[in-house]
Amino acid sequence: MKYNPGKKEIICNKELNNLDKFALDFLQIVGKHVDYVVVAGYVSILLGRTRITEDIDVFIKKISKEKFIELYKELLEKDFWCLNAENIDEIYGFLEDKLAVRFAYKNTSIPNFEVKFPKDKLDEEVFEDCIIVKLSSGKIKISSLERHIAFKKYFLGSDKDVEDALHIEATFKEEIDDRKIKKLEELIKKRQNGKTIS
Amino acid sequence: MERQFLKPGKTNKEDRLNFIKFWANYIRTHSDKEWSQQQKVLIDSQIQNAKSLRKK
């Protein structure tokens, strides 16, 4: 696995597991309609962490209802379904209310994708420094490694999250920008104290 | 390549953290194919188990 921070890309020739294949299937459709970035636990798993998750978190940029309808139609055509509702107005309404909606292969519940719009500036910034993981049969856009570590350690903070962060820190220890993590830690703490991030 | 050894932890938490560092080092020193085949066994079996449980 080779990470090139300058190019913002990781080249990974891993043998794909079923979670990776599920992610590529779903994101290949999503990516045609809207900009996305995968965040949280699956980032660590994609990059080698030895654990499973039932959901993959993804931010999509805020899009119009019309565009979302096109995305939803294609997801249905390609055998996905929404776990939260069938009605498009209801699904889009959840997203507008900053709630996450989940999609899985039809007639299943796991694994699933948790799709959400960014809630604030800090969430929106995930699109600015994201990196691309190039796999044998596709690409996946993930949050920057520093952002991933900072959110896991300073926002989420459970044992599992700290372990996910440690996996990335230890795997990419020579390429990680510690100053960037520190800056993000400060922003996250501001957000936790209720201050607006602008 | 010199073999790396896993340091036993004094607590379950420390042991888990030691294993994560050990595994990260394995990833750094082995080909993507070598580590991902092992990850695939773990992940695919757990997804399969979950699906089997839902069918029951």
The total strand number of chain A stands at 9
Q: What would CATH call the architecture of chain A?
A: Roll
Largest interface, counted by CB within 8 Å of the partner chain's CB: A-B, 26 and 27 residues
Strand order of the largest sheet of chain A: 3-4-7-6-5
Helical content of chain A stands at: 40-55%
- CATH topology assignment of chain A: Nuclear Transport Factor 2, Chain: A
CATH class term of chain A: Alpha Beta
Tally the beta strands of chain B.
0
Please give the oligomerization state of what you see: heterodimer
Largest sheet data of chain A: 5 strands, mixed
Q: Could you say which structural class the secondary elements and strand pairing of chain B correspond to?
A: mainly alpha
Instruction: Please trace the helix and strand order of chain B, writing H or E for each element.
Output: HH
- Unreliably modeled segments of chain A: none
How many domain units of chain A? 1
Q: Give me the number of helical elements of chain A.
A: 8
Number of domains of chain B: 1
What is the gyration radius of chain B calculated from CA atoms? 15 Å
- Helix/strand/pairing class of chain A, anyone? alpha+beta
- Mean pLDDT over all positions of chain A: 96
The average pLDDT score of chain B comes to 91
Structure, explained:
The complex is a heterodimer of chains A (198) and B (56). Chain A is of the alpha+beta class. Chain A has a single domain, classed as Nuclear Transport Factor 2, Chain: A, CATH 3.10.450. Helices cover 44% and strands 20% of the residues of chain A. Chain A has 8 helices and 9 strands. In chain A, the strands form 2 sheets. Chain A has a 5-stranded mixed beta sheet with strand order 3-4-7-6-5. A 4-stranded mixed beta sheet of chain A has the order 1-2-8-9. In chain A, helix 6 (145-156) packs parallel to helix 8. The longest helix of chain A is centred in the first third of the chain and has 16 residues, at 18-33. The relative contact order of chain A is 0.17. The mean pLDDT of chain A is 96. Chain B has one domain (12-55). By secondary structure, chain B is mainly α. The mean pLDDT of chain B is 91. Chain B has helices at residues 12-29, 32-55. Chain B is 75% helix and 0% strand. Chain B contains 2 helices and no strands. The interface between A and B is medium-sized, with 26 and 27 residues.
